[in-house]
Structures are given as structure tokens and as C-alpha cells.
TrEMBL record:
<dbReference type="InterPro" id="IPR051685">
    <property type="entry name" value="Ycf3/AcsC/BcsC/TPR_MFPF"/>
</dbReference>
<feature type="repeat" description="TPR">
    <location>
        <begin position="76"/>
        <end position="109"/>
    </location>
</feature>
<keyword id="KW-0802">TPR repeat</keyword>
<dbReference type="Pfam" id="PF00515">
    <property type="entry name" value="TPR_1"/>
</dbReference>
<feature type="repeat" description="TPR">
    <location>
        <begin position="144"/>
        <end position="177"/>
    </location>
</feature>
<dbReference type="InterPro" id="IPR019734">
    <property type="entry name" value="TPR_rpt"/>
</dbReference>
<dbReference type="InterPro" id="IPR011990">
    <property type="entry name" value="TPR-like_helical_dom_sf"/>
</dbReference>
<dbReference type="InterPro" id="IPR012668">
    <property type="entry name" value="CHP02466"/>
</dbReference>
<dbReference type="Pfam" id="PF14559">
    <property type="entry name" value="TPR_19"/>
</dbReference>
<dbReference type="Pfam" id="PF13759">
    <property type="entry name" value="2OG-FeII_Oxy_5"/>
</dbReference>
<keyword id="KW-0677">Repeat</keyword>
<dbReference type="Pfam" id="PF13181">
    <property type="entry name" value="TPR_8"/>
</dbReference>
<protein>
    <submittedName>
        <fullName>Uncharacterized protein</fullName>
    </submittedName>
</protein>
Length: 607
């Protein structure tokens, strides 16, 4: 409704005042009145753009920003504000061009440097973000915000020492910078130094700051120290501040699961849902936890009632389809998946699961169509290559042998012995002692492929213990030799990413017990994977006709019966390191023994 109290002579100052007082509709009216008299006023278009953005009218805001620049091109602030809007619209290339133009016009515009760098981090261009931030810091080394983002970029590249240095610079400039303290704590935790992380979080508490993420990270750090009582206390505090804090619910209930606390398991969800009964993301997380803990009937009830009461949300439909697919491959499963996909046509997981349905129902060509659509959306997703391989094998397409070249791509060799150890047996014994101290849980992890065993948390190779760092050194040498001997093929989705430079993206230890095994799986976010065998039961032997405890490649998780095929199997021995592409289906055969099967798996990404 028009505001009849408009001043007789609207001015830009009136419009700015209205905007600053949160009266965006009035600001737009004032700007329109100014533009009626002066259609080429760049300031009026600028203020109207800002007011439109505030109201969520992003397309109108974009148009007004461009009109302002049309009538007066050299406006660094307008360029920077338009670039920020384009980030919201995911027009990242255009945003970069505008940030660059803004900075060329005014190199002292620190907001432009800052927001450009934040955008580069958001689009995972961390090296470029660091370059821009270093340029900005030459111009102004007193802006603590720049050091904070610099720390974040280094953290993502796992340059943890550089990240800590950047946060310390920010804190020298602004000692009470809560964001720098918080991110510094996260970095210490990534460095497997939870005690120093806790000190950062406790300093934030001394500043009388209370927010859910603070208690969540405190809880996680106490968990790292195996102080489960304080871990639970802080995770519960995080939920008390934010009842629908999904990550805190998941962490708390995984902790209950590991402790075998059936009474408390999922209790936090039930309590939170009494406060927020229609919180869709909370309901979905609750259903997912029920599925992971094999409570399928209850999960189905939660999903069906959510669909009935909240609506046919794609996440509920997809989860219900996955549950029903376990029971039988009925047409209802496909209709649920297609309905979910209609809401989210670029969702890679939905596309893959529809392909999965068609594979199980022997329609390989149609399955391949959905696999190819998924590849268009996420070309680096390794699960897509795994499904492509299944389709090609079942269609007897020779490209399957080219893709899944087990003999060339799977290498199994003993590790070298670092200095300070008598032989490989001595090295593996010392490594075993260090690893067993880290297997504190008695329960198998809730959300991993491990069945009948335990898995460590955090980044194992970041542990400072000498034997683990010695292992990392010889493992790096082993991987480098593997990468250097790989053939070249610019068309192969695996080989074309080999730069012969790499980083570890994940590392952990698994201890399988009597009857334990790894369910068949792939690593969707990986590129290269490896597993080192540290300690093994005596009855895992190369002459075993049952191949108990062996690692196998090629057999899927789709339960295809006679259509399954194992491409390669390897008998592990202590000190053996097996390297393979992350998209290869792999799992292990169960074994029977009073002794454990102790391994160190890792994921590796190319640089």
C-alpha cells in the first residue's frame, strides 16, 4: 500500500534514512518518486536495489544495481554490493568480475577484498582466496577480518600451522574476536589437539558468549579426550539453545550408541519434537538415525506420518523409498523416487538410487541414462563411476574392463620400514600398540561400513605420536610410487585426475572382531583409497578356501545374487598396503577368531 506520508520533495537522504530504519518499502517508494523526476539517478537505483534485496526481491535488486552502474559506471561500492547479490544468486563468475572492477577503482575497499575471498572459499578456490587476501593485507594489515578468512582458507587446505598463525594475527588486532577464537579451536581439533581447542572455547565463555555452536564444538572436543560425561553435557546444552540442532542430536546419539546406552539413544529427538513437532529437518534426521540403527518399522512410521502431516517433502519421499526398497522392489519405490526427483531434479543421490532401482529390475540401459544425468551434475562423485561400471558389466560392454582395470589399478605391496625399527614386524607391533589405545568404543559405528568392530574418530594421520608419523612418512612414499607408475589416459575418469601430487582427506583405524567384516561400499567423495594391514588373526591365510578376512573388489551392495561378480581378492598380511581407486566396490569376508583384524584405511585426493 502506498505511503501517503511521503515528503513533498523526496531526496536520496530521505530514502537512505528509511532504509537504515528498516523501512524498505518506503525507501523503494521514495526512490521511485526520485526516478520519476530524474530517471538517470544512479543513487536512487542503488538505494532501491539495496531495499529490494532486503525484501528478498533479488531479481529486481539485480536489475536496479545494473541500472545504477549504467548511468555511473565507476562506483566501487555499487559494484561490490552487486557482487554480493550475485553470490546469493550463485552467479560466481560475474561476481568475481565485479569484485575485481570494484578493487581496480578503489584498492582500499576492504569489504570488496573480504567478500571476494569469502566467495572464493565458498566455491572451494582456497589457493586463490589466499592470494587475494595476501594482496589485501599488503594494502591494509590492520583488518582482523581478513586474517580470519585467511585462517579459514588455510584450514580447508589443511595448512593448520598457517591457519593458527592467521587467527593469532586476527586476535592480536582484536583480542575478543569470537569468530577467530572459535575457528582457532576448530583448527586445533583438526590437528588432534582437543585440549587447546577447549581452551579457545572456554575463553569465549569468559567473554560471556553463549551460542549453540560453541557448546557443540566443546562437546566434540571433550569426546576427543574420551571425557564422555562432559561431551554429553555440552551437546545437550547446544540442543537446549537450539532444539532443532541436527548435528548436535546426531553427535549425542552416536555417543549413546557407542556406549550401548539404549535408554538414552534417540531420547533427545523425542524431547525436541515435542517442542517442534513439524521441524522437517529434525524429523528427517530422526528417521535416518532409526534406519541406521535398524529400526526400520519405526522409521517408516515417522516418515509416513511426516508426509501426512507436513507434506510430500522430497527428503521424506526418498527415505521412504529406500526403506520400501529393502522390503521389495515394488513399483511404489520407483514412483516415490521419481516424485522426489521431480522436486530436486539435480539431486545426485536421487538419480543414483533410481539407477539402482533399474539395475535391480534388469533395465540397464535406463539405469545408465540416470547414471549419466548424475555425472553431469557431479562429475567427480566416485559412486557414479561405480554404478557406471555395474551397468557396463551387466550389459557386457567392453568399457567395463577399461574402467575397472583391477590388475592395473589395485596394488598390494609391503610397506618400507622406517628408521628406528628392527624390521617390519617390530614396526607393525609398535603401530598396533598405539592404535589399540584409540579404540575406546565397544560398539560398531552407527554410520559406517564396519560390521562387528570399532572405528577411530578424527584424522589418524594428524596424531603427533612418533610411530603414527613414521607410518605416514612411509605411506606417502608408497602412494607416490603408485601414482608415478599409473598409465596416462586423459579420457579415464580416474587416471585423468592424477597430478602425482596428493593430500590425505581422511584417515582412521578399524578393529574388526570375531565375525566382523566391512559391508561392500565405495567412497563417493574420494579419489584414491588405501588400506594398511597392521595386525591379523593367524587363521587369515592365503590357502584358505573360504578366503576368511580377505578383501574383495567388484561385488556390490545391491544384492544382485547370481549377477554379482568379484573382480579381485587379496589375502592381507601384516605390513601390506593395498591401494585402489575410491570408486571400486570393496568389502571383506567375515572371519572367526578370538584375535582382532587391525587396519588403517585412508582416503586421498589429488592436488
Amino acid at each position: 500500500m502506498p505511503d501517503n506520508s511521503l515528503p513533498n520533495k523526496p531526496t536520496i537522504n530521505f530514502a537512505i534514512s528509511a532504509l537504515q530504519n528498516g523501512k524498505a518499502p518506503l525507501a523503494i517508494q521514495l526512490c521511485d518518486a526520485i526516478l520519476a523526476d530524474n530517471p538517470t539517478s544512479p543513487d536512487a537505483y542503488h538505494i532501491k536495489a539495496l531495499a529490494s534485496k532486503l525484501l528478498g526481491q533479488l531479481n529486481q535488486a539485480e536489475k536496479c544495481f545494473y541500472q545504477s552502474l549504467h548511468y555511473q559506471p565507476n562506483q566501487p561500492a555499487v559494484m561490490s554490493n552487486l557482487a554480493n547479490l550475485l553470490i546469493n544468486l550463485e552467479k560466481f563468475d560475474q561476481a568475481s568480475e565485479l569484485f575485481e572492477r570494484s578493487i581496480l577503482s578503489d584498492k582500499t575497499n576492504m569489504d570488496a577484498w573480504l567478500n571476494w575471498s569469502i566467495m572464493l572459499c565458498k566455491t572451494k578456490q582456497f589457493e586463490l582466496a589466499i592470494s587475494k587476501l595476501n594482496q589485501a593485507l599488503v594494502i591494509n594489515s590492520k583488518d582482523h577480518r581478513l586474517f580470519n578468512v585467511l585462517g579459514n582458507a588455510h584450514q580447508q587446505l589443511e595448512n593448520y600451522a598457517d591457519a593458527i598463525d592467521a587467527y593469532n594475527y586476527a586476535l592480536r588486532l582484536h583480542p575478543d574476536d569470537v569468530q577467530a577464537l572459535h575457528n582457532k579451536g576448530i583448527t586445533f581439533r583438526l590437528m588432534n589437539n582437543p585440549q587447546q581447542a577447549i581452551e579457545c572455547y572456554q575463553y569465549i565463555q569468559k567473554l560471556n558468549q553463549k551460542y549453540p555452536e560453541l557448546y557443540f564444538n566443546l562437546g566434540c572436543a571433550f569426546y576427543d579426550l574420551n571425557n564422555k560425561a562432559l561431551a554429553q553435557e555440552n551437546l545437550k546444552l547446544a540442543i537446549s539453545f537450539k532444539a532443532d540442532y541436527v548435528e548436535a542430536h546426531e553427535a549425542l546419539n552416536k555417543l549413546h550408541w557407542e556406549d550401548g546406552d539404549k535408554t538414552s539413544f534417540l531420547e533427545s529427538y523425542q524431547l525436541a519434537l515435542t517442542q517442534m513437532p513439524k521441524a522437517s529437518h529434525l524429523l528427517f534426521s530422526y528417521a535416518a538415525m532409526l534406519i541406521m540403527s535398524k529400526q526400520d518399522t519405526k522409521a517408516q512410521s515417522v516418515l509416513e506420518s511426516s508426509i501426512s502431516e507436513i507434506g510430500r517433502h522430497h527428503a521424506f519421499l526418498h527415505a521412504l523409498a529406500v526403506l520400501k526398497n529393502k522390503q521389495s522392489k515394488t513399483p511404489e519405490v520407483l514412483s516415490l523416487l521419481l516424485e522426489a526427483l521431480q522436486q530436486q531434479p539435480k539431486n545426485t543421490k536421487y538419480l543414483i538410487d533410481i539407477a539402482n532401482y533399474y539395475i535391480c529390475n534388469v533395465d540397464y540401459k535406463l539405469a545408465m541414462q540416470f547414471v549419466e544425468k548424475a555425472e553431469q551434475e557431479a562429475p567427480l562423485n566416485q559412486e557414479i563411476q561405480a554404478y557406471k561400471g555395474i551397468c557396463w558389466r551387466l550389459m557386457q560392454d567392453p568399457k567395463e574392463k577399461w574402467l575397472n582395470n583391477y590388475d592395473t589399478f589395485i596394488h598390494a605391496q609391503l610397506l618400507d620400514v622406517p628408521q628406528g625399527y628392527r624390521d617390519l614386524s617390530h614396526f607393525m607391533y609398535e603401530l598396533k600398540i598405539a592404535l589399540l589405545k584409540k579404540h575406546g568404543s565397544e560398539q560398531q559405528p552407527l554410520d559406517q561400513s564396519v560390521v562387528g568392530g570399532t572405528q577411530t574418530v578424527g584424522r589418524l594421520l594428524a596424531e603427533p605420536e612418533q610411530v603414527i608419523q613414521d607410518f605416514k612418512q612411509v605411506l606417502e612414499q608408497r602412494i607416490l610410487r603408485y601414482l608415478e607408475q599409473l598409465p596416462e589416459d586423459s579420457n579415464h575418469p580416474y587416471l585423468k585426475r592424477n597430478t602425482k601430487h596428493f593430500k590425505f582427506s581422511g584417515s582412521w583405524s578399524v578393529c574388526l572382531k570375531d565375525g566382523g567384516f566391512h559391508a561392500n561400499h565405495v567412497h563417493p567423495e574420494g579419489w584414491l583409497s588405501c588400506c594398511t594391514y597392521v595386525d591379523l588373526p593367524d587363521n587369515i591365510q592365503p590357502d584358505d578356501p573360504l578366503k576368511s578376512g580377505w578383501v574383495k573388489f567388484g561385488e556390490t551392495a545391491l544384492h544382485l545374487g547370481e549377477r554379482e561378480a568379484i573382480g579381485k581378492q587379496i589375502c592381507p598380511v601384516s605390513g601390506l598396503c593395498v591401494i585402489f581407486p575410491s570408486f571400486f566396490w570393496h568389502g571383506t569376508n567375515a572371519f572367526t577368531s578370538e584375535s582382532s583384524r587391525l587396519t588403517i584405511p585412508c582416503d586421498i585426493m589429488p592436488l
